[in-house]
């Protein structure tokens, strides 16, 4: 019996030692191999909610990681790098709030809660002197219960009235934007696509926007420009002519038409472009067109 | 814990929370020296903010992939043209973007003459403490940042922060 | 038409809920028949249900003259997500909230109408009144829009991606509002005289309902965020997640302190019962008022100050009613150190500390703002240093439970030798063969300790066994996936390969499509590991109506690990794609753990209900009361 017990104790001792060794080994450094990621994990992405720099995908976070990588390469310490960021972004860039000011609460409250909870538990387990059992609340006297009832009724009315009045006062005056207009959305998308130089797709979206607002020549002009850049000169010419049908002297309309005609009917192009120069000599594109015509 | 303590605590926290509910006044910024901003502009010229002492400089951090930036660009360019005689420079710091996309954006906004310093890695913007795009800084004639607007600027904001520096009514 | 019906039913609710409160108060004070009061409660439920049905009908019939539909409906939205869009935004979700609350009230009204129940019904009815008033005056979804738009933007695209959207919020609401019943009973007990002594026995099944739904709801939410948000994680210590965790912690503690009739722990029981609902209210204030920004938080609204006021009112009432010393029943004898009493109180103290920690981390940005001028959220690192070690302690305490059911110290120690050896061996083996970090390592050890202890438990199908096993599995999955998860992100050309541990991914092609302006880009990837090759297609979707891009991850789930692929960006010529490849081990174990724990709760509930049915007339003896809880 004692021998068995000895074996058990011995075995447990070995296990405890091994477990401690494992813990120590695991607690050591080299948890994270990448020093940049380590520094980044201690900083917060300023453009996101509650994400660290290490995990955020926002462009500015990528830039900040780049800065960290540069500084690490220069041999700066993580502490120094953190300070560099605090100088530019303030304390809030630190993932760990500083332990001063309100940040102190983060550590004080749990400690107090643990202490208080522990003391309360101990008192419950070993009750010294119990509070003397007080008398039950007197109850059910008809007079007082009627008063209680009326008081409650008044309280309920007050509650509802408070909500009604406060809600009215606090409601921000019609701040909601009008529901999205599909044409506006298509336009915004098309502009994004143009920015990515995907003119064919952009033209498609401009067409969609035009179905919603067939009278908008500004959209039609954009369509014409997009078609021109997508190398669809006949389409561009058609759209430009539609614009010119409404406003015969539209400089942009003439410009697109002229440029499109350089592909479709080269003979007429110079005429149209000269008309463009006559209508809008100060247009930003005018110098370029003069150069074209001159050559 | 005594009921009274709980009551006091919750009331205190409640008061603070209620105070926090109200939007506080904007955080006042003490003027600080503007970080360096130098580089090769889009057309290949040299630009250095340090050489712009004596000018009021409006630094706008933007990117062609950011919708609000595209929207505010005409306003900034217009402001630049209007107040150039009084000594205003507008500089675009172009964050993580491609030159083609920026040129297309500038052409679209008719702003080919805007001074744009590319920042393909965003390192310069981080030096300035930029949190996102768009973001705009006003640098006074002594090279100090006197105003800073994260997000889109309005004509009123520009007027309010630029007019005193430029001495325009 | 529907708008009028909706507003009218909300108004009817605003009338019947206070009426119910007053009728129940009359029952409590004077003791007449409870039938009219029950009818009033049922009428409030009917009003809430009618409002919900009216709004759902408006959503399904695309009645864009109703404000909520104009802002959150859309003709392009599939039917399922049209139904769920009721709770995809503030005002509609308040209706669901009301429906659940009124349903709890109507259910609680069904029991024996003694003074305890009557007072509790007064409390629940007052709460219902407040939320009806909120819905009518501050967040009426039925207000008319003129002119009615032809189409709406649809709900947030993130909320249209995963079927869990139909289950997760209703479950969470059921869990949140389930806490109102123990709260009401705790407030009613000191008023109800002798009948008040029974409050714990009545409250416990309700707390179990709340606990089960909360557990399932939280785990489902984690699963949803894992499968939808595309960052590869399941828990971010986001304010809304924290807000759901807080009542779960106190309810868990309550379920333990009420074991064995909860004798000797009267103060703990009433504090924990109140804390659950108060934290639900506080969480609602924090997350729904725009006070704390979060992934889930709905936009700014006038609800903030009103909710805050109500939270303060509730705290005040709870403190006044339960705070004063009450007629104590026979004082319990001091319990020996090794007893269920000690374990239960230690557990409660730890859980309360975790709750206080999480609450501080969540509220601090608000408290700090007036001082520091910034409203920066507290990062996950804080919780890893505070809440996680405490949770490991809770787990260790759960592992001790098998030793509490036996007589004699030697026997108890013997029971702990095997599990203890298993836990230590796990720590030793894992710690010496890899470096998962202290938190994960202790988590593994504690989980092994608990599971080894439960393996010998007979019978196995007991609520406590299931609950603790579920918790241990959950800890195991969390520790493994955080410690051994690997991820890499790279821009690949078509044909190039990215490798993480033993998984390699080759970019096959990039496809674009733009049906009706809704752009989508998909990357076709060949995933090979252990000799097999599969295809995964993560996507990026652009929602024009809300101008947001949404990543749709592709998850190849397995027992041992998940291969988690996200498409981050695509070049303009579709020649390259930026892909994030993550290999997350044992994530499936987390969901399994959640399911097992929930099953434990359901089992406890089923037993409690059955016993309630059998033994309703007679007062419960000590034996019944002991068996009433999950023996811990």
UniProtKB/TrEMBL annotation, chain A:
Its Gene Ontology molecular function terms? Answer: metal ion binding
Kindly state which keywords UniProt assigns to this record, in alphabetical order. Answer: Heme, Iron, Membrane, Metal-binding, Signal, Transmembrane, Transmembrane helix
The record's annotation in SUPFAM superfamilies points to: TPR-like
Matching entries from Pfam families are given as: CcmH, TPR_19
InterPro entries named among the record's database cross-references: C-type_cytochrome_biogenesis, CcmH/CycL/Ccl2/NrfF_N, CcmH/CycL/NrfF/Ccl2_sf, TPR-like_helical_dom_sf
Start and end residues of each CcmH/CycL/Ccl2/NrfF N-terminal domain: 36-133
Bilayer-crossing regions: 104-126, 147-167
Q: Name one GO cellular component term.
A: plasma membrane
Give the family, as the similarity comment puts it. Belongs to the CcmH/CycL/Ccl2/NrfF family.
PANTHER family xref list: CYTOCHROME C-TYPE BIOGENESIS PROTEIN CCMH, CYTOCHROME C-TYPE BIOGENESIS PROTEIN CYCH
Give the protein's function: Possible subunit of a heme lyase.
The molecule here is called: Cytochrome c-type biogenesis protein
Organism listed in the record: Micromonospora pattaloongensis
Automatic annotation (TrEMBL), chain B:
Check the record and name the Pfam families matching this protein: AhpC-TSA
- Residue ranges annotated for the Thioredoxin domain, each copy included: 28-167
Specify the superkingdom: Bacteria
InterPro entries, per the entry: AhpC/TSA, Thioredoxin-like_sf, Thioredoxin_CS, Thioredoxin_domain, Thioredoxin_ResA/DsbE_sf
Q: Name one GO molecular function term.
A: antioxidant activity
**Which PANTHER family is this protein grouped with?**
THIOL:DISULFIDE INTERCHANGE PROTEIN DSBE (PTHR42852), THIOREDOXIN-LIKE PROTEIN HI_1115 (PTHR42852:SF17)
Protein's UniProt name: Cytochrome c biogenesis protein CcmG, thiol:disulfide interchange protein DsbE
The species is Micromonospora pattaloongensis
Automatic annotation (TrEMBL), chain C:
Task: Please state the protein's primary subcellular location.
Answer: membrane
Q: Which UniProt keywords apply?
A: Cell inner membrane, Cell membrane, Cytochrome c-type biogenesis, Membrane, Transmembrane, Transmembrane helix
Q: Which Pfam families does this chain map to?
A: CcmF_C (PF16327), Cytochrom_C_asm (PF01578)
The Cytochrome c-type biogenesis protein CcmF C-terminal domain sits at 338-606
The keyword Transmembrane is assigned to this record: yes
Residue ranges of every copy of the Cytochrome c assembly protein domain listed in the record: 87-289
User: What is its biological role?
Assistant: Required for the biogenesis of c-type cytochromes. Possible subunit of a heme lyase.
What name is this protein filed under? Answer: Cytochrome c-type biogenesis protein CcmF
The species this protein was found in: Micromonospora pattaloongensis
